[in-house]
Amino acid sequence: MIAALVAGLRAVVAAFSFLTVLPFGRLVALDGRDVARGSVLFGVVGGAIGAMTGGVAFGLADRLSPLLGAVLAVALGTIVTGALHLDGLADCADGFGGRTPADRLRIMRDHTIGTYGASALLLDLVVRICALATIARTKEAILFSIAAGALSRVGGPLLAVWLPYAQARPGAGEALNSHPSQPRAAVALVVAALIAFVAIPATGSYAAIVATTGIVIAHVGWTARSRLGGVTGDVMGATSELVELAVLVVLVWMR
Question: String of b and e for 78-90 (b: at least 16 CB within 10 Å)?
């Protein structure tokens, strides 16, 4: 009983430590198994980050302006997550342009950002800020951000059970790929879907964002398999970023 409780607490700490820069990991020494167990709560962490960014945009929209509020909200979200998913998006944008799987993986390991990566980051941030600014004066900023944040974090657990780890060197994504679990991935998906449903109960909108999530994850996974031979931490990060952006845009479009 006590061992199960300790394992559960370690999983909670691992989920927040893996997806944010908040100092939860200083409380205990964590390993890959803790992160894998904590993956069932990735949607909770994503929803919490979404609530924070949406809340900032909503709270500052009248005091400053919707656009400036959205910029500051996105900036805060980037700081809290350590730009983890943005880094993955930039690396994938650069790497996928390589000639062979080996070249692509080598480029993705390079810390410098090329033209493709910079363009991907710019477009992602511009679209995200504009979408959030559109709804910043309404509580939809909070609700939409919660749904997008929760659904975006299921890509990693799902890709980990679908594809092998492609990088030869250990990386962030290896924590999930080394301990894949279909039941955990299923629970992570259900938890995220429930959070999104509470935030977006409208049947049409909810069905659209769930479908959007599935389409983005499937497309990125298929692309990673064909061009890399598997998944990496960067691919997982890029998937999260693209799902969150796509869900947010679909919700703004359908409102």
Answer: bebbebbbbbbbb
